[in-house]
Amino acid sequence: MQVCSTGDIHSDEEADQEVKGNHDISLDAAYELKHAEGWRVQASDTELCRKLLMENKSFTYLENSSALIEIPDKNVSLRVFGSPYSPDRGRQNWAFQYPEERAEDIWSAIPDDTDVLVTHTPPAGHCDTSSHWLEGGCPGLLATLESVKPLLHVCGHCHEGRGAEILRWGEHPGTVASVRKWEDPGAGNKKQSLLDLTGSRAGETPLEAGKEMAVVNASMVARSFGRGGMAFNKPIVVDLVVPVLRHKEAECPEPGLSV
Ligand SMILES: [Zn+2]
């Protein structure tokens, strides 16, 4: 399975699951209506662009929606939710942006049984450092994550926030008890940027499903636009134990496949 988010890089990646972002103005059906006045980038034929994406049988396009991936021969079931949205901080007219008071409406679409969440914006306070979006990630998204408790949340958008954190949920609803920061083993060398959440390697701690969640900001572009020359990050490889089929019905799910 490949999940690809192309919002800030303007490339034509090949993937099985696609999630867009705030630079994909030609895919936002509301863009021309929202930004009829003032500064804006000229969108292409939005209807045609959306049709091309949605009718492509080689991948599933996720726009604040989810897909259930079942691999019976591996006994694996995984729900992936994808969203191109990020908070509108009132500086520029970009695509798929919402005023923060609408955050609850946007994120209420995340199903309770989501295992892997891919959103353009990070949650507030976690992997959301940015020289451009100084306000960081979305507080409403963090509140939703605390109730859904997915295994993994992959995001981007705040380029200087690239990295990973493992959040342990608090005993009281809406609280984070502790945060473990990931140290990139591939920083400044030729090693892979691996985040091992399986605990299968010496010195690594496994992710405790339901009690912990990994946030991974996988921004490939290392700096915000206009903050120095182009620089790129390595991709982050996440090693994760994924749930077995119908895991939500089982009281004590067995470990599934490591991907
Ligand atoms: Zn962005």
Comma- or semicolon-separated keywords:
259 residues; alpha/beta; Purple Acid Phosphatase, chain A, domain 2; seven-stranded mixed sheet; three-stranded parallel sheet; 16 strands; 11% helix; disordered C terminus; binds zinc ion
Assigned CATH class: Alpha Beta
Question: Level of helix content?
Answer: 10-25%
CATH 2nd-level architecture: 4-Layer Sandwich
Which strands sit side by side, in order, in the main sheet? 4-5-8-9-13-10-11
Return the structural class.
Answer: alpha/beta
Report the radius of gyration as a whole number of Å. 18 Å
**What characterizes the major β-sheet?**
7 strands, mixed
Termini separation comes to: 9 Å
CATH topology value: Purple Acid Phosphatase, chain A, domain 2
Per DSSP E runs of 2 or more residues, the count of β-strands stands at 16
The ligands found in this model are:
zinc ion
Shape: globular
Number of spatially distinct domains: 1
Order of helices and strands: EEHHEEEEEHEHEEEEEEEE
Low-confidence stretches: 9-13, 250-259
| Percent range for β-strand residues | 25-35%
Query: What value does the average pLDDT take?
Result: 85
Helices, by number, come to 4
